[in-house]
Amino acid sequence: MDGRVTDQDLAEHFKGIGSITEALVKTRYGSVSSGYGFVVFEKAEDAEKAIEQLNGSTLRFRKIKVEHVKEPSEVKEAPAEEGAGEEGVKENRNRRRKAPAKEKEPAHEEASKTAVFVANLPFGLTDEGLVGLFEGFDVQQGHVVRTRHGISRGYGFVEFNSEKDQQEAIEKLNKTIVEDPAPPKPGKEKRPPRQITVSVSRSAPRQPEETQNVN
C-alpha cells in the first residue's frame, strides 16, 4: 500500500461496501507507514464483499491486496530497525545501500488501465494545476511527486475513471507545451515552458514487508 495513504483515505476507499467501525493504517516509529492497514466492518458479510470487490483495486496509484486478517503465527514480522523515527529508518537504508546487491528476478511491470505518468512537468506546477491540464476528462485524482522538502521532482501521475479517458488524454496531451505558473523570483527570469510527455503508468508491485490485511 502506498506510504502516503491515511486512515481517512482507507475509510473512503472502503465506505461503499458497508458500515465501517474502524480504518487504520499501521505505522512504525509513530508516523512512518508500514505499508498496510486494517478495515473493520460491522457485518461479516461486508468484509467478504470487500475482499471480492476491492482486492486488486487501485488506491493512490498502487494496486492493493485485500484479505482476511492473518493469525499471529502466520504474520512475518519485519526486522526491527535501529534508531527511532525517520532518522533510524534513514540510517538503516544507508546501511542497506552499502551491502552487496543480491541477484533477483526483474520486477514485473504491469500497465495501468486508468492512470498516466506525466513527465517533464514545470517545477512550479501544483497538484491542482496538473489535474487542470486534463480538463474535460473524468479525472479521479492526480498529484505531482515531490521530495520530502516539498520540491517538485518534475513528474506526476493522473488517474482517470475509465480506460477510454486515459487513452484519449495520452493522445491529446502527449508532447504538449505547458507554461510554468510560478512567478519568477526577484532578479530572475520566468522559467521557460516545457514539453510534457504523457504515457501509460506502469507499476512494479513490491512484496509486502509483512503478511497483511490490506497492502
TrEMBL record:
UniProt signal peptide? none
The record's annotation in InterPro entries points to: Euk_RNA-bind_prot, Nucleotide-bd_a/b_plait_sf, RBD_domain_sf, RRM_dom
Q: Does the keyword RNA-binding apply?
A: yes
Looking at the record, which segments are called Disordered?
A: 70-112, 175-215
Q: Which GO terms describe its cellular component?
A: nucleus
Keyword list, A-Z = RNA-binding
For this protein, the record's Pfam families field holds:
RRM_1
| Composition bias type Basic and acidic residues, residue spans | 70-79, 100-112
Which superkingdom is the protein from?
A: Eukaryota
Xref: SMART domains: RRM
GO MF assignments: mRNA binding
What spans are recorded as compositionally biased (Polar residues)?
196-215
Residues forming the RRM domain are: 1-71, 114-203
SUPFAM superfamilies xrefs: RNA-binding domain, RBD
Q: Would the keyword RNA-binding be found if you checked this record's keyword annotation?
A: yes
Name of the protein in question: RRM domain-containing protein
Organism of derivation: Arcella intermedia
